[in-house]
Design a protein that fits this description.
Residues 1-36 are annotated as: Disordered. With 132 residues, this protein is mostly helical. It has helices at residues 35-55, 58-66, 78-95, 100-130; strands at residues 22-24, 30-32. It contains four helices and two strands, in the order ββαααα.
Length: 132
């Protein structure tokens, strides 16, 4: 069957008024839907769409909940990170079951990172002293 613009539509559901929407029950008969119930449904759909636009889909909300949240910025402070890196060099690396040259290279790399962080901390302290 081809659909054309000049096709005549004899379906009574297409001619029904906007206030009542026919509902086909299990027996095949139709009865009008209560306008209040129709309005409640429309409000529920609009509310759902608004929540989806604000908070994203349920999957996006769950993914956001799974992301770590930095509750305390001091966790990322230089003193703490330098202390943790130094602990890795002093306690973790020597206990690793690997080749000595690998441990030595890792310790050298971490010590360079510690030195760089200390240098940046000094630069920030100097810049803060110069600011009025």
């Amino acid at each position: 069957m081809r659909v054309t613009a000049d096709r005549i539509h004899d379906d009574p559901r297409l001619r029904s008024s906007a206030g009542t929407v026919p509902h086909v029950g299990e027996a095949g008969g139709s009865k009008p839907v209560d306008p209040e119930r129709q309005a409640d449904f429309a409000r529920a759909v609009e509310g759902s769409q608004a929540r989806r636009q604000q908070g994203g889909t349920l999957r996006e909300q769950i993914e956001r909940l799974a992301l770590p949240v930095a509750g305390d910025p001091s966790l990322y402070a230089d003193e703490r990170s330098i202390g943790l890196l130094q602990h890795v060099v002093d306690a973790v690396l020597p206990e690793m079951d690997t080749q000595a040259e690998v441990v030595e290279m890792a310790a050298q790399l971490i010590n360079e990172e510690i030195a760089q962080r200390l240098e940046w901390a000094e630069r920030r302290a100097e810049a803060e002293e110069l600011e009025p």
